[in-house]
Write a structure and sequence with these properties.
Elements: E1 3-6, E2 10-13, E3 18-22, H1 36-44, E4 52-58, E5 66-72, E6 78-83
Antiparallel strand pairs: 1-2, 3-4, 4-5, 5-6
The structure holds zinc ion.
Length: 93
């Protein structure tokens, strides 16, 4: 069982959270000007790495807030939790 630390509520069981997919995917500013291929790229194409992955989670059974997590998709180790709008810790930005 995965334990996820909500930035507002602290450590909680994985069952309290909803997974929201890959983090840091910005909606195109003017989608009407995109080609079908570029729109499909935005909608469907994700990195799906084996290893560290930046992803969104929501504390559905708690504060219901969204936040970001860096989780290794192979070991499930969580190495960072940070709020929406923040950059991942340790990325040098
Ligand atoms: Zn929470």
């Amino acid at each position: 069982m995965l334990e996820i630390t909500c930035p507002w509520c602290g450590p909680r069981d994985e069952t309290e959270f909803d997974y929201g997919g890959e983090a840091h995917i910005d909606r195109p500013k003017d989608p009407d000007k995109l080609t079908d291929e570029a729109w499909a790229e935005y909608l469907f194409m994700r990195k799906n790495p084996k290893g560290p992955h930046l992803e969104r989670w929501m504390h559905a059974c708690g504060c219901r807030r969204w936040f970001n997590v860096r989780r290794d998709t192979f070991t499930h180790e969580i190495t960072a939790v940070y709020r929406m709008g923040e950059k991942p810790p340790g990325d040098g930005a």
